[in-house]
Amino acid sequence: MRIVIAEDDPLLREGLALLLRAESLDVVATAGAPDEALDAIDAHRPDVAIFDVRMPPTHTDEGIVAAVEARRRQHDLAVLVLSAYVEQTFATELLTGGVGGLGYLLKERVGRVEEFLDALRRVAAGGTAIDPEVITQLFTRSRQDTRLDRLSPRERDVLVLMAEGLGNNAIAERLVVTDSAVHKHIRSIFAKLGLSPTHRLDRRVAAVLHYLEDARRRA
């Protein structure tokens, strides 16, 4: 896996590079500014780019703008975005865009090495990886939806983990339940959200997007 890191904090940038190289991952370049990151991506054609949300010169959304531009230039590029805190508008736009190979993690998650590496590999494989804290906040804000109120506490737990990008086996391990129990909960979620087998979207995706889109409308 070839990786470019775009992070303006030199300590975090070099720390990430050391961590990834220790895992035998190929960090082909690091950058402290958006333009440098785009130049590195053009030069090295990495598999994954890790972007800080807030970068110079204004430290607002330069990292996101650069990430979008990087994907425009290299359509198969996976992007993992890091943020110091939950930015709900970006998180919902990220998920409701319906495109794989994207992730959004809080920077504190980097310290949990196995979780961070799992998220990175999931994104590189074309999946999504959304920080659990982001999902929790979005879920809390979307509870006014009456269909979501029909879900049991365990079904809510399952839906949150689905939104993080976990598969059924991983959900079962996280909740310490059987695979068959997870299947049962997911079938119930589909039924309560009115998602039939003929729904135009994959029902798993539709279930996640349902409450995330509601959260975006209420943001």
TrEMBL record:
<dbReference type="InterPro" id="IPR011006">
    <property type="entry name" value="CheY-like_superfamily"/>
</dbReference>
<dbReference type="InterPro" id="IPR001789">
    <property type="entry name" value="Sig_transdc_resp-reg_receiver"/>
</dbReference>
<dbReference type="Pfam" id="PF00072">
    <property type="entry name" value="Response_reg"/>
</dbReference>
<dbReference type="Pfam" id="PF00196">
    <property type="entry name" value="GerE"/>
</dbReference>
<dbReference type="GO" id="GO:0003677">
    <property type="term" value="F:DNA binding"/>
</dbReference>
<keyword id="KW-0804">Transcription</keyword>
<feature type="domain" description="HTH luxR-type">
    <location>
        <begin position="144"/>
        <end position="215"/>
    </location>
</feature>
<feature type="domain" description="Response regulatory">
    <location>
        <begin position="2"/>
        <end position="122"/>
    </location>
</feature>
<keyword id="KW-0597">Phosphoprotein</keyword>
<dbReference type="GO" id="GO:0000160">
    <property type="term" value="P:phosphorelay signal transduction system"/>
</dbReference>
<keyword id="KW-0238">DNA-binding</keyword>
<dbReference type="InterPro" id="IPR000792">
    <property type="entry name" value="Tscrpt_reg_LuxR_C"/>
</dbReference>
<dbReference type="InterPro" id="IPR016032">
    <property type="entry name" value="Sig_transdc_resp-reg_C-effctor"/>
</dbReference>
<protein>
    <submittedName>
        <fullName>Putative two-component response regulator</fullName>
    </submittedName>
</protein>
<keyword id="KW-0805">Transcription regulation</keyword>
<dbReference type="GO" id="GO:0006355">
    <property type="term" value="P:regulation of DNA-templated transcription"/>
</dbReference>
<feature type="modified residue" description="4-aspartylphosphate">
    <location>
        <position position="52"/>
    </location>
</feature>
<dbReference type="InterPro" id="IPR039420">
    <property type="entry name" value="WalR-like"/>
</dbReference>
